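Weekend entry, working from home. Most of the wet-lab plans are on hold until the incubator is repaired, so I used the time to fold the two sequences that have been sitting in the queue since the last round of cloning. Logging both here for the record. First:
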Amino acid sequence: MPIRALTATILVFFGGWLVLFFIYPFQRLPHWFWRYQVKELPYAWVLFLLAGVGVFGIHWILGHPRCWRRNLVLLMLFGYLTHLTFGLIEGQGMRAIWSKDLGAYAKDAIALESWKPVVVDYELYLERATEQSALQTKPPGTILYWYAFKIFFMQWHERVPNSEELLEFSSYFFPIFTYLAIIPLYFACRYLMSCKMAYLPCLFYIVAPNITLMSMRPDQNLYLLLALILLLSFFYALFRNTFGSFLGIGFLLYGVLYFTFALAAFIPLFGFLILGRVGVSFAKQSSSRSFFDFARYTFKHTQAAWGLVLGFLTPAIAAHLVGGYTIWERYRNAIQIHHKWKNIDWNWLNSLYFPTVNLLEYALWIGMPLTLMALYYFVISLKSLPFRIKFVHSFTISVSGVLLLLAFFTRSGTEVPRLWIFLTPLVCIMAALGIRQVRLYRMTWWVTCLWGLQFISVFWLKWFQDFANEEILIHTTLQELLG
């Protein structure tokens, strides 16, 4: 076995067991978001059947890569089934999926009689809401999303639901959005890898713990779908490289940020990818190694990308002039309230501690096997710098750069497996590129092993550190731990 194949194998299997060994020690860290608790799972035996179906599906899909329509339908159905199964094994029916701290969203949606107060003057609407409402840190699209499902319920049942009825009703439909995201994920991957390899990120997506276990949250369903539609559209614009295509991306970016500010992280990502694309082209076509030659080349080949800026500013200014909604003002208010709720003293010690904890927390909750395989390809990408770089390398470095920016500059006091969940499909792509780089013999068997370890990681986290806890925050400070 080649050295790189042996290295990847050790990393993957070691990572699978790291999840189990670190679940208890990590939760003792100050501000670790999920408490250790053993959850009763009376129907856990069903997971053996689900895993068997998954293994059969992997071999079937990778054995018939050209049948992409059928394969994508199978992946979406299996993802939906996996999501429901990990909830139902608690023996509480659908309540195990929707009995989270989401009642406030449902109550706000039920109290909202019309969409007009939200669209016309969102800040005035928030003033009338409770100070602790989660909507205080959200743009208007979040409550409109829940309001749409209230209207859907009323059309179906011809009456206004209560909060529990709306949550239970939505619990059947929200996961559909989660796994519809597999379609744009697959087609985005086709810009980076072959038809067969493009299924790998979709398979890993299904067994990413934070996607499977964080039920009913807009981060886990709507935001993921929007993120991957935006990524696919950006790839189309990037490789077409026309002013009109980038203009459309600007409009789409504004529309996405109307629903969630989390995807503002795509702004630096797009900038990195544009520079990466230009850098790859420059390395191939020019024999010059001068920085000034690269700067002139970059300016010449990024003029179309200014359409993105124009496309974003046009609806932003129009919304401000016509509807009084100012996106940057809403973002500033949301960040201030977020920091107020977290109530963290950002001294130099915490400024180093929290980024470290955030990265550990995120790595554990997307699965250590997936994390280590992605990290392996990140190292490979760094080695390609500066003159052997390909676009897949610049993609990997760009995603990693955004992850580090989020860790060190956004001041997120843990809970990042939910807040950064939109990056999880991109990490799945990095892991798939890692497997392609290794070129393992009998690739399907090794993909099955990585997928199986991820499946076990989901089960371990469900069993010992599930997202659904009543008291989830640990308010110990780092100074208390040290002193």
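Second, folded right after the first finished:
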Amino acid sequence: MDWQLFLEKNDGSRLELSGKVIRLLHQEGCGLLPGELQMELIGKEELKTGEKLRLLTKGGENFCGRITAVSFGLDKGRVTRTVFAKDVRRFLHYSDAATFSAGDFASAAGEILAKTNLSGGCSLITSGVTLSGGDDRVKQYATMLEDLIAEHKILTGEQILLRCEGENLHFSTFASADAVTIPVEMIHRATLSERDEAVRTRLRLIYGEETVQVASENGMARWGVLQETQILGSPLTTDVLRLYGDAQIFHLAQEQKSLEIEMAGDWNRRIGDHLSVVLPLLNVRFQGYVTRVEQQLFSGKHITKLKLQASFGA
């Protein structure tokens, strides 16, 4: 067995549950949305909401979170329990009338996390870029972080990735390293999709009295005028607005290409991974970033399901 599941009870005791699990589903959290663990197990051990679950694999700790719901019943004469748990990102979805100081991303994010009693760190993120401080309106902590992430992207062009590392949160930029190739023999099923629901061909940006409008001529020729208007909370000049608008419309005026694959179980796959997939039967070579990871264990089998969003230009 290449994984272990432990229950940490509130009295400090620890119990391994690996051998009692019938089914397990782990969905890695995406951005500020919590990761989730759902499992069905046999046995009469008492599990309570608020107790902690840890899923350990050869690659490290894939999940650490607290139980949010427990149900139990009978299945062919056996007592079974169904358990749901969420990782620490759950605590970002509570609200406060909290202010935080102007500063670069690392300092501002650290100030917000301190209010939630969570620990975090940053790497590969441009420092020294001053972001706006927060006001005292009641907001979820996740909303405060979303505003920071959006403002940082406007000023630097960097897309920030948030991951859970055990009980700690870690912010970084998406990997720029060469894509890792997934061997075709590991892939059981694959679905390639192209969609234009999110396409926008004209973008209007507003900050206070400043307004900038940018458009994609090629996009409008293909899809017509599909406008999006964004009201920004950051103090930006017209020149910065235009630079941001030009970068945004380049991405918005492209259809979304995605690939969903079901493959042999792989605990090493994480959201933000840069992967390459070659499907000779479809004459497809797809390169992109992982935006969804789902691990399934049942009947002694381990299956990994991934969704990849195409790298621009792929």
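Plan for Monday: verify the second prediction. The CA atoms of residues 269 and 297 lie 15 Å apart.
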